[in-house]
Amino acid sequence: MADVQSVLDAAGLTNPRVREYVEYWAELTGAARVEVVSSADDARLVQEALEAGELLPAGEGRYYSRSYHKDTARSEERTIVATSNPADKGVYNNWRPASEMKPMLEDRMRGASAGKTMYVIPYLMAPPGNTLSPWATGVELTDTRTVVLHMMRMARVGVEHINDLEDPNSFVRAVHVAGDLENLGQGTPDDQRYFVTVADERTILHFGSSYGGNALLGKIAHGLRQAAYDGWASKKFLAEQYMLIGIHDKETGKDYHICGGFPSASGKTNLAMMLAPDALGDRYHVSFYGDDIAWLWVDETTGKLYGMNPEYGVFGVAKDTNEGTNPTALQSLGEGTGVIFTNVAYNEKTQEVWWEGRTKNPPADVDGWLDWKGDRIADREPGDQSPWAHPNSRFTTTLDNVPNIAADYNAAAGVPIDVIIFGGRTRDREPLVRAITDLAEGVYDGLTLGAEATFAAEGVEGQLRYDPMSNRPFMAYGEGDYAQHYLNVVGAAKEQPIFAHVNWFQRDPEDGHFLWPGYRDNLRPLLWLLQLKNGEVQGRQTPVGIIPTKEELELSGVEISEKDLETILSIDNARWRQEIGFREEHLKQFENLPEEIWVAHRRVAAALEAEADES
């Protein structure tokens, strides 16, 4: 057992409460060594990981890692929010009593780091000096070196973030122990893994995984679950799974900022990293702030709604990322960026990486290529079409590597929010864009956000899998209380943002082609929203919001037929009335749902019925 206090002295870690916390967990887990890290240690730790075979070189300044084949994604059913108050139980947060979960996790972790190094990662999930910094500091303890390297790309790391806290005890305690990954019973009745956020104690205990979503505790467990609870308990802010972008109008000199939530596979990262289409590039520049998390608050001096991305990097899904879908992402992964690829295909001879969708076809010469499990492609049976890369394979890179990163992404002030958008994936019913100017109706729309399920998966053709605010896996307390808190925070802003719902995925029912080109052209409906907010266009009022007229959309350079354009700018009343029934069932699950949300629901339902009667 290491002399913990001497190690902390040598690292300059002076916060007494952090020192007590590190010593307690070093003893409980049985770690052989303790090491405090900062971002300055990255190159040394990379070299150590290469020498240990934990990383492989993927070209100059690029690295490849492979996780245990049963440890490749977040595990929702093993992810728990625990508190001492049963009233915190919601539909989606898997609430359990802290008195049950804390001892269980301590038992699993006891002695589980024997022979290993415990890395101490002091981190900040906010731009330095941000008004929400008191809720953004944490210390992750991990026994896995690759987790340290990923955290250095996803958070600001160093003892300077925790030494001088106004309250030395006001940091999130985040403990990650990987466990014996090959003997944890993943997916069986004897599954030993648990990923627990003890929200009212600001403590995160994750056991049984080294995959990013389960192991990078500053990211999701702190940045979303814990922060959501903190925002509610403090009545100060919202922590949302939102992307955040800036749009600069070169002609007027004005800057606008848009954030919003999208369920999985609904285009969030591609939108966040979007470039202006060629036809509009001379006038508009799109800046990237973040693709996954935004914290929102009202500035007490100006009364404006502000937002910031608490992360320092991008933990992106590799699948289908290419020059057409997301050239910005590819530029973020170039030589010298320090990017870490996880569970993609790897060529041990050339150090190349590949994933499905990177190119139309996989490399023709399979010599040296290994799939995500490390098996040789050349040894496959004829006709074996199984993926080379895991569908949830990832790349981890810092914000500084993103070519269109906003100049002020690290500014303490954050940025004023003009528009909040929600975007599901539906083949019909949902138009290209519809704007909502009423706060309660905007929150109602976010609570009923979803992506279309398949008949095979869900059993009801056309019904959505609801993902409220795209926060379903990250809810930290009851959904009714969440809705009221959202109304309170945003409602306190002197200038209200406009809400909107977008959908890039309508298809032709006959041949299945997408009606809207998407990708860079998705800037066009966003510009219309800004014009609507500025009073420059009127749109057309429908029961579910304001949609553009075709004359109002800037369509220069877009190839789209009149028929397709008409479809994506119209409302299918019958399908919407069906949807209202599904929404009511969904919302009835939530206790304490504010009456304003029910009023908005009834108003939309009545408007749809009135329109149907008129026709």
Quick gist of this model?
This protein is of the alpha/beta class and 615 residues long.
Distance between the termini: 78 Å
Count of individual beta strands: 31
What's the number of helices?
16
The low-confidence runs, each spanning 5 or more residues with pLDDT under 50, are: 454-459
Arithmetic mean pLDDT: 95
Largest sheet: 9 strands, mixed
Rg over alpha carbons = 24 Å
Helix fraction?
25-40%
Structural class: alpha/beta
Shape estimate: globular
Our estimate of the beta-strand percent is 15-25%
Commentary on this structure:
With 615 residues, the protein is an alpha/beta fold. It is built from 16 helices and 31 strands. Strands 1, 4, 5, 6, 7, 8, 9, 10 and 11 form a nine-stranded mixed beta sheet that branches. The protein has a six-stranded mixed beta sheet with strand order 15-13-14-25-29-26, with helices on both faces. Strand 13 and strand 14 (255-261) form a beta hairpin. Helix 3 (42-52) runs antiparallel to helix 5 and helix 10 (439-447) packs across helix 16. It starts with a helix and ends with a helix. Residues 454-459 have low confidence and may be disordered.
Features:
globular, 615 residues, alpha/beta, 6-stranded mixed beta sheet
List the topology elements.
Elements: H1 4-11, H2 16-29, E1 33-36, H3 42-52, E2 56-57, E3 63-65, E4 79-83, E5 95-97, H4 98-109, E6 117-124, E7 137-142, H5 145-154, E8 156-157, E9 172-177, E10 194-198, E11 203-207, H6 212-215, H7 218-234, E12 237-240, E13 243-249, E14 255-261, H8 268-272, E15 284-290, E16 294-298, E17 305-308, E18 313-317, H9 327-331, E19 340-342, E20 345-347, E21 353-354, E22 369-370, E23 394-398, E24 415-416, E25 419-423, E26 433-436, H10 439-447, E27 450-452, H11 455-458, E28 464-466, H12 479-491, E29 498-502, H13 523-533, E30 540-542, E31 545-547, H14 562-568, H15 573-587, H16 595-614
Parallel strand pairs: 1-6, 3-19, 4-5, 4-10, 7-9, 9-11, 14-25, 25-29
Antiparallel strand pairs: 2-3, 6-7, 6-8, 10-11, 12-16, 13-14, 13-15, 16-17, 17-24, 18-23, 19-23, 20-21, 20-22, 26-29, 27-28, 30-31
Helix pairs in contact: 3-5, 10-12, 10-16, 15-16
